[in-house]
Design goal:
Oligomer: single chain
Shape: globular
Strand content: 15-25%
Low-confidence stretches: none
CATH topology of the largest domain: Nucleotidyltransferase, domain 5
Number of domains: 3
Largest sheet: 6 strands, mixed
Number of helices: 13
Radius of gyration: 23 Å
CATH architecture of the largest domain: 2-Layer Sandwich
Strand order of the largest sheet: 3-2-1-4-11-12
Length: 470
Amino acid sequence: MALRIGVDIGGTFTDLVALDETTGAVVTTKALSTPRELLEGVLSCVDQAGVRLADCRFVIHGTTIGINALLELKGARTGLITTEGFRDVLEIGRGNFLKMYDVLYRRPEPLVPRGRSREVPERLSATGEVLVPLDEEAVRAAARQLLAAGVESVAVVFLFSYRDPAHEQRAAQIVAAEMPGVSVSASHRITQEWREYERTSTTVVNAYVQPIMDRYLGEFGRDLGGRGFRGELLVTQSNGGAFSLEAARSKPVHTIESGPAAGVTGSASLSRILGADRLISFDMGGTTAKCAIVERGLVQTTDEYHVDGRPLRIPVIDINEVSAGGGTIAWIDAGGALMLGPHSAGADPGPVCYARGGQEPTVTDANLVLGRIDAGRFLGGAMPLDLASAVRAIDGRIGAALGLTRAAAAAGIVRLADVKMALAVRSITTERGLDPRDYTLLTYGGGGPLHAVAIARELGIPRVAVPPSP
């Protein structure tokens, strides 16, 4: 038997597809993600599929672990070492806001606050000539200060280092020596692009998610090997391609849209089968919802991408993402308004109805209370849901606070999720001069089919397509 396996570990569920290259048989399985022991979810899927990893010659892995850590602000405590005079590059950013005419727009807080940013004397010209030599003692002092501040990961970004990386290379060596066990991301290894703000932001995001991704991918590779896997292991990139496990561990920013990009690539293939020249790929998972445009079977790509307002200067399939998934938490703000996200209950503890200790109502709880999910058939009947707990959470946390009936409170949560996701789709269509009425909405992910019709109705999309195993 020769197997190919595709694995996606999301913030809430793990999915596996196994293809027998001899017979063409395809098996799909799903299990709860296991954040503390990530491979448990994968092995659960492997056992359900009845396959042996020793028979597998190829595993390709997509993940939303990095993007979820970024959107939920659960990454590493990060520091920045940069050229003297450029300490505030993340604070200053650019004047051309993403939403120039949105009076309520608020720029996201930098992942590295000013107190964890350090300057060191060094300078290159725009052509790469050394104007100021690197002050190695200043780098050592900066590293010691960041270590004392409890920093877990450091971004090293010097002006024009893409012309000559020598200063960054030496600074990274010093930081690694002074801060053993701390991750170090040097900008010339991450993105060799001009514009210091975008390059700094990209490198800082890499540093922010690297400890989580390095630990998780390292364990993933070792544990697969421990179960007999000896084949080729690749990780999907944000551009729709794939790279080695080792490259993914050192450059995790390139996996920020790993799982979603793989979904869009699959949507492009399905668009040709459906005969849909214009298609909107819509993926609603447990933590986020993602959407992208497919034109005539081709995905749209960009080399400058924003995640929650943070620019990334890397090649990526053009995907818009919003924190509206099945596990996204509903809450009441100080002004008494119903809010949704950005935090998610994830897989552990998960929505209240999972009966795993969750206390805060989520989109899944609201769907269950409204009867849109069958409590006895969730996950194919393998995971019955606790309707009574979901009812108590929505009544106690939302209904009582707003003076709403149970049904109205649950409907409000679902409606808010629908609106947030419709806005995400509108941003890649109407706001770019495209008419959503000319497109087919292809929906997948655990929650996609539940919400797709409401989104299509909101935007006037005439056709919704759902694959056999969404």
